């Protein structure tokens, strides 16, 4: 079936139930007559910019942030504030510890900020590593990030 129809169905599925894994999402799509592979679902998750958040019936679930501009920024700020546990720095590196499964969400938020001093970010399951252009700029970036979790 068509990619747009499949992605619309993914949004419908995650709105109806807590889906924690790509395999669960594949199974739900197959039940609804979409012949998909895990690789296809993975690409769809990236295309749709889905995030993992705390679930109600499962530990985590996929979520979609609707709207644009400020709506996304406010929701992303809230997600960032809810999932960050600590922000620490050493030289030009900043390490953010998050709740398990939320590293990519925090990393996406940091990338959205587009700080000119940030050379890059690497997100894992529960950690984000930020590389800053200089040791001198690092305290300012830490301070600005901490403002989001107050």
Keywords:
alpha+beta, 6 helices
Q: TL;DR of this structure?
A:
The chain is α+β, with helices and mostly antiparallel strands and 150 residues long. The protein is 47% helix and 22% strand.
Describe the structure.
Helix 4 packs across helix 5. This protein has a 4-stranded antiparallel beta sheet. The chain has a two-stranded antiparallel sheet with strand order 1-2. The termini are far apart. 25% of the residues are buried. The longest helix is centred in the N-terminal third of the chain and has 14 residues. Helices cover 47% and strands 22% of the residues. The protein is an alpha+beta fold.
Largest sheet: 4 strands, antiparallel
Contiguous low-pLDDT stretches (5 residues minimum) are: none
Structural class: alpha+beta
Report, as a whole number of angstroms, the end-to-end distance. 45 Å
How many strand elements? 6
Number of helices: 6
Q: Please compute the radius of gyration using only Cα atoms.
A: 17 Å
- The run of helices and strands is HHHEEHEEHEEH
Tertiary shape? elongated
**What's the mean pLDDT score?**
88
What is the share of helical residues? 40-55%
Give the helix/strand layout.
Blueprint: H1 3-16, H2 22-31, H3 38-48, E1 51-54, E2 60-63, H4 70-83, E3 84-90, E4 93-98, H5 103-113, E5 118-123, E6 127-132, H6 138-148
Helix pairs in contact: 4-5
């Amino acid at each position: 079936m068509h990619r747009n129809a499949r992605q619309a169905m993914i949004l419908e599925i995650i709105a109806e139930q807590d889906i924690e894994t790509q395999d669960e999402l594949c199974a739900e799509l197959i039940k609804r007559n979409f012949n998909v592979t895990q690789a296809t679902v993975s690409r769809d998750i990236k295309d749709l910019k889905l995030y993992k958040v705390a679930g109600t019936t499962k530990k985590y679930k996929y979520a979609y942030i609707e709207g644009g501009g400020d709506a996304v920024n406010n929701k992303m700020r809230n997600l960032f504030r809810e999932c960050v546990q600590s922000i620490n720095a050493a030289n030009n590196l900043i390490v953010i510890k998050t709740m398990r499964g939320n590293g990519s969400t925090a990393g996406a938020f940091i990338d959205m900020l587009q700080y000119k001093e940030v050379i890059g970010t690497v997100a894992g399951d529960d950690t984000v590593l930020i590389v800053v252009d200089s040791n001198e700029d690092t305290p300012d970036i830490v301070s600005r990030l901490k403002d989001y979790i107050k």
